[in-house]
Each structure stands twice: as structure tokens, then as C-alpha cells.
Records
---
Amino acid sequence: MEIPIKTICCIGAGYVGGPTMAMMAYKCPDLIFNVVDINKERIAAWNNDDLSKLPIFEPGLKEIISNTRNKNLFFKTEIEEMIACADIIFISVNTPTKTRGLGAGKSSDLKWVEACARQVAKFSEGQTIVVEKSTLPVRTAEVIQKILDSVHSNSNSKGKSFSVLSNPEFLAEGTAIKDLENPDRVLIGGEDKSAMLLLSEIYARWVPKEKILFTNIWSSELAKLTSNAFLAQRISSINSISAICEVTGANIKEVSRAIGKDSRIGSKFLDSGPGFGGSCFKKDILNLVYLAEYFGLKEVANFWEEVVTINNWHQKRIAKIVVKKLFGTISQKKIVILGFSFKANTNDTRESAAIRICKDLIEEGAELVIHDPKVSPQQIEIDLQMKQFSEIKNENTNYSNNNVGNWRFSKNLNIFDNAHAVLVLTEWEDYKYIKWDQVVKTMVRPAWVFDARSIVNVALVKQTGINFWCLGDGSSNNEISDF
Ligand code: NAD
Ligand code: UGA
């Protein structure tokens, strides 16, 4: 089918807008994709000739960008013009949890979505398909449609008409390109059958038709929230069981493997870790909680809220274990933190478990040396709301008189000298190959390795005699050796 569509605009050049449009541009060389954003620096970074300076890191993204950018994919700040010439507009802006007012702490802040809808209403021309790509509370499409329709009360509506569709994104960071190229499903919710068909024809260029699902618009919005809630629930479930493993002598990896063999349960998303992070799981569950509360479904709301409660408890639990194992005090003890992003293969730190855990350790007086292959020290400074130790020193602040610890960043892994402990928080591949027999020689004894991602080579660490704690491993060394 020939698509009577030539130009597509995506509002929001973030973790979703950027890679999603890049993949579409790659698969549809005959269509034009304009990605716009109010953040000029972000757009400049997307246009940087040096592809290692793109605003987000995703394996495979550079290659796709180099194939499409300035051919049929453009990153721009001219939002109004790009809206005016678009046949389809994807709304891919941020939808964080509200921090104040009605629904604060739970419901989504839709001010960016509303601003987009108003811009589309004002600047679009002719017939436009408006697609919700952002994750939104159920019935947001109604709000968008109302804002768009409000132009009809305006004398210069110039024959405008709109169809609103829901097409949530299911990519995971770190595997975004793989997920976009080979999605489990593409979900299109709406009422306007011809608009739904047009959108599906774009995906059908590379996604098998049986994977493209059509639903009503509310099911599509709710399916996205539910999908994230189910995934997060699995992680809270397995993390809660890891705590039981530690006190009973069971091993969470063995338990996961055993239950994952049940085809009804399946083996994916059963890795225990320091608690789920990322910009979406917590926000989307809280959104679901808010929705349930709004409709008076208190028990449903409580059920889903527990998933977040367990996650918070679990993150706190890890910092407490470190303190306890280091004789109850970590004041002025050097602790090496391996990994700060919320998962491997991304530079994103939003809601990373490392933030909570590092803050707790600093609060206890530890001196952290943080390594991450992709996260910048500037980002860590924002997340920890604290400057690096070297900068505090340069400002001549009286840092030695308080009991709070500090942190500094290291680009390389020559950081183990005089460390009391190493704590692995992100499963970066590099950390699997650390030569523990060399590392222990330079550490303070008794030395500890805490592995919250179960990626360290246990046999290698244990050979060195170093004390080892692994999340969910009830058999790991509970006695403190001289190492
Ligand atoms: P992001 O914060 O990385 O990007 C959003 C971008 O929108 C920002 O660059 C911001 O400047 C821009 N923006 C906001 N208002 C604008 C406006 N009026 N005009 C132009 N630009 C505007 O967010 P993200 O991670 O890409 O997430 C976007 C949405 O997608 C969210 O609803 C999220 O829940 C959902 N989602 C995210 C992921 C993910 O992996 N990050 C996956 C699936 C779905
Ligand atoms: C998640 C979903 O997987 C995507 O389908 C969804 O599109 C996206 O949220 C979204 O809506 O934003 P993402 O947060 O990028 O993707 O990454 P995940 O792989 O889901 O990991 C989330 C967190 O769970 C990470 O902190 C990760 O380390 C943790 N995790 C994941 C575990 O602790 N154990 C696991 O087995 C899997």
C-alpha cells in the first residue's frame, strides 16, 4: 500500500523520540522525519558530527544515525514550522510524576503533553494524525482531542482536522535499537480505522503484521502502564525472595533458574539486583495507583503500591548490609562503587538504585570513588546533590568538621588502593573481568566485595580470600576473614 504520508514530526528528542524516529527513518527512506525539541542543547548534541557525543548512549544508535541523519532524519528546534508541514505528529515528551498539587507524588504531570497539544492545535495544517508515544494516564487521549478540537471555535482553523491515536513505546534502554528493530508487538489504539491503518503501514515496512495489534484507545493506554507494572512487580518479587535466600542459605540464582523453567512463569526478568531504576517503572506504577484510587479501588491501589515500597526498602537494605559488614561504621572508609547508571549499556541515571545507595553511604561518612563507563561526573553531581570532593576542597570549605562523607569520580579502574570495600551496582561487562587477585593486594584488610548484580566471578574472588557478599546468596561468606 502506498502511504499518502510524506512528513512525520516527533515532538521530544529524548530517549524515546530520538531512537524511535531514527529507526523509522532507517526503515522508511522515502519519508521525512523531523525530530524537534525545546531543548536547544539536546538538538545540537543530536546534530554533533562526533557521533560519540550524541545525547544518549545506546548500542547500535550511532550506526543508524550516521545512515539517516540529514538524509531523511532531521533534528531541529523550529517546532512550529515542523508541526505545520507534518502529516503525522508523535508526542514523545516527558511525563514525570507530579511533585505538587492535586495527585502530587503519584499522578503524571501532563503539562508538557498539554503544551504540545496546544502547539499542534495552533500550527498544524489540514488533516493531522496525532500519536501519543509518551506513556500517559488512561483517557489522556480525550484531553488531547478536546484541546485539538478547541481550534474549531477559532476563525482561522483552516480546515484542520485531527485523529488521535495511542501508540505506546515498549523499548528498554540499553537494548533500544534491538527492541525497535524486532519488537514483541506494536500497539495501536484508536477509533479512526483509516488513521490506525496508515500508522500500521509504516511499521509494516519491517514488523510482521501479526505483531501489530489494534485495540481501543483506552486499552492501549492502560496496556502500557500494566506492562511496566507487571515487569516491575517481577523484580520486586525476586528481590524480596533474595532477602529470604540470604537468611535461609538458599541462592537466588538457583531459585530463579528453577522457577523460570516453569513455562508459565518464564525465565526473563528474574535477575535480582539493587532494585529497579529507570525513569518509568516507579512513575508508571504510581500512575496506576493513582488511577485505582481515583476510581475508589483502594485494594487495587495498595497492591500495586507495595511493588514500589518493596523496591525502596530493598535499596535501603543494601546500604545497611555494607555498613553492618564493615563493623558498623564506614566513616572515612574508602568504598569503590562500580556502576552508577540504572542498568548497563545506558548513560541514563534516572531513579538509579545507585543514587539512593550512594547517598546513604555518604550520609554514614564513607568516601566513595565512583566509576561508570558512560555516566558523567556532572550527572552524578546532580543526582547526589553534592559536589565532588576535589571541588569542595578547592572551594576551601570546612569539609573535615562534619561527619558526612564525600565522593569523587574516576574514569579508569585503577581505584582500589586503600579501599575497604567494593560495591557493584551496575552490571557493566567490564566488571566481569576485574583481576581480583591483583586488586586485593592494594585493599585495606579485612577487605570486602559486595556484588548487588551477581556478575562477579565468585570463584576468582573467593580464591583471593577476600570477604564476599553476593545479593541473595545465603551461602556467601558470612564469617569475616583477615582479608
Ligand atoms: P526525555 O525526558 O528523555 O525526553 C523528553 C523530551 O521532550 C525532552 O528533551 C524535552 O525537552 C522535550 N519536550 C518537553 N516538552 C516539549 C515541548 N512542548 N516541545 C518540544 N519538546 C519538548 O523522556 P523519554 O525518556 O524520552 O520519555 C518520553 C516518554 O516516553 C515518557 O512518557 C516515558 O514514560 C515514555 N517512555 C520512555 C521510555 C524510556 O526508555 N525512556 C520507554 C518507553 C516509554
Ligand atoms: C522498561 C521496560 O522494560 C520497557 O519495556 C519500557 O518501554 C520502559 O521501561 C519504559 O516504559 O520506560 P527500562 O526501564 O529502560 O525499560 O529497562 P529495564 O530493562 O526494564 O530495567 C528496568 C530496571 O529493572 C533496571 O534498573 C534493571 O536493572 C532492573 N532489572 C531488570 C532487574 O533488576 N532485574 C531484571 O531481571 C530486569
---
Amino acid sequence: MTQAVKISPSILSADFAKLGAEVAAIDAAGADMIHVDVMDGHYVPNITIGPAVVKALRPHSDKPFDVHLMITPADPMLEAFVQAGADIVTIHPDAGPHLHRSLQAIRNYGAKAGIALNPGAPINDVEYVIDQLDMILVMSVNPGFGGQKFIHSQLKKIEQLRALIDASGRDIELEVDGGVNPQTAQLCIDAGASALVAGSAVFHGKAGSYAQNIAALRGGSGATLKAVNG
Ligand code: DX5
Ligand code: ZN
């Protein structure tokens, strides 16, 4: 596999007072997707943004909006997020009563469907819904906040999911979310991740640093860029 890992910066770590400009900046800096963390103060102990903000941000980038719902119940909000411009909608299996139905609904509304596995969640949550999945998101921190420490036990889960996806022959993105920095990014890539979410590792420094921050997460290219820039 020689395809470069995709980088999906989490706007949770952006400056919320100028979110449109921040989304445009990470787009220009080489982001492959835009990761939007939606929190309800109920499923997770934090509140962030809703469909109105996703809609407002939509004109600021043509890149896929990778919308991570940490809300329960998720079902009543799925259509609104797709209508607002979400390209991928990812849900947690314990955030609603009928996972298979929810994934079907996301696709019926016209988006790609993802499942997010918390650090304590088993991989067999995906077994009977794999034909409904376009993405599997491995949480390498407990959801709710940016800037947490990477939980290394999740590397084994990434390896197991990589084997499962390859055995299925399906085109399923394997994304890792939480505590991703240039060091842990490499571990995730080695374990089989195809996409990485990063909040604090992308949004540090001024907007002028974002391209270098993103490149550093891709491994070799980051090192090269750093060398070129001294
Ligand atoms: C946590 C979110 C993550 C988070 C990542 O609940 O799902 O996307 O923003 O932030 P960092 O990269 O700072 O760990
Ligand atoms: Zn997320």
C-alpha cells in the first residue's frame, strides 16, 4: 500500500471565533478532509456545534466534511447533518438502539456511513454491519475533548480492523482519532490506518504553520518539508 495517509484536521482545536477562515486555511494547507466533532453534553461531557454551523462552514471548503457525531440519540439529527453538507457521518454504536438501521439511514440520506469505536469498545461491533460501512473510526482517546494523550492499546485494535477490512475486500476508510501527533501518527500508519484525525497537532502555531503541521503527520513528507524549511 503506497497511498498516502489522509489527514482530517479536527476543527475542535480551531479558533471558534473565525471558523470559516480556519476551515479555508486547513483546506489550503493540504487537509484531505475536514473533521467536525459534534458533542451534545450528554453522550460526552462537552458541547460543540450543530448542523447550522456545518451549513455555514460548507462554502469554505470543497473537501469532504467528515462529521463525527458524539450525540445520543443520533437518529433524529442524521438528516439535518447530511442536509447541512456532511459527506461522511460517523456514529457511535451505543448512541442509539438500532445501529444497522442508523447506518442505513445515513446512506439513504445521501452520505457515507461510519462507526466510531471508543477505547473500551470491541471490534466485533463492526462484524454484522460491515456491509453498511464506509468508515471505521478508532477512538484513541475517550471522546469529549481535544488535547488528550494517545491510548496505545488501540494500536492492536487498528491492526485487527485492518485485517478485517482487507479480508472483507470492501473499500472502508480506517481512521484514527485522538492524541495523533507526528510520533503516534507513524504508529497508526504502521498498524494499518488509512486516515488520521488531528486537532491540536494541526492547529498549533499560526495559520502559516498548518501546512507544515499536516505534512509532519504524513511521515516522510513531513520530515522532508521540515528539512527544506530549515
Ligand atoms: C475527541 C474528538 C477528537 C479530538 C482530537 O472527542 O473526537 O476529534 O478533537 O483532538 P486531538 O487531536 O487534539 O487529540
Ligand atoms: Zn472526532
